[in-house]
Amino acid sequence: MLTSQRKKAILDALARDGQVLAKQLSETFDVSEDTVRRDLRELAGEGLLQRVHGGALPASSAVAPFAERRQIESSAKRAIAGAAAAMIGKGQVVIIDGGTTSAELIRQIPRDLQATVVTHSPSVAVGLIDHPLIEVLVIGGRLFKHSIVTVGAAAIEAMSHIQADIYFMGVTGVHPTAGLSTGDYEEAYVKRALAARAAETVVLASSDKINAASQFVIGGLALAQTIIVEMATDPALTKPLEKSGVTIVRA
């Protein structure tokens, strides 16, 4: 079998099974595990999969810079944001993550809602200026320009003084075995710290993030209680998530 044929078969198996194991692939192709690992390295270098110990997972495609992602109009993203906004109750303390879906979420919060929003996203904070009854608490720290959020030790320290009702988390990967992941090391720490400060964590996940993984793990699926997905998401992708105990909301 040619290298190109092996690589195509690996990607087909990833799409079908959600993961591949190097040992099984070497047996299937009758090649050494070193050969399989080289194939996986090259495919990972092209951004077509995410290598993990012993094999690989589908790579998340939701890793473009914020400005580029913001230009992508998505009815699914608006629906997910609308379902999230409807979960916010009067008087609640709500943590809102950075990201393009969060930017849509704040646009759908009613102007007459009274609540407190905690965020490490300057964009989210500014977007709530015209909501007169929402108090906005901004978490400081080093600005991570890719996602326009603050990260670092100062941000995590500030979070330790918060007790929130709900946290709307943005991710780049949701996978039944790899859990929740993102593309930046420090951002993963911040998201994990925010989840620890909320009674409920709700993950906002468009279809390109389901059954995919990024380089840095935020935590297992148990970190979240609810995942909001778009209505058209294949039930075969969400069923393994539901089996883990997470509630799936279709928007």
Automatic annotation (TrEMBL):
Signal peptide: none annotated. The keyword Heme does not apply. One of its GO terms (molecular function) is DNA binding. It comes from the Bacteria. Keywords: DNA-binding, Repressor, Transcription, Transcription regulation. Pfam families: DeoRC (PF00455), HTH_DeoR (PF08220). InterPro entries: Carb_Metab_HTH_regulators, DeoR-like_C, DeoR_HTH, NagB/RpiA_transferase-like, Tscrpt_reg_HTH_DeoR_CS, WH-like_DNA-bd_sf, WH_DNA-bd_sf. Residues 3-58 form the HTH deoR-type domain. The keyword Hydrolase does not apply. PANTHER family: GLYCEROL-3-PHOSPHATE REGULON REPRESSOR, HTH-TYPE TRANSCRIPTIONAL REGULATOR SRLR-RELATED. This is HTH deoR-type domain-containing protein. The lineage of its organism: Bacteria, Pseudomonadati, Pseudomonadota, Betaproteobacteria, Burkholderiales.
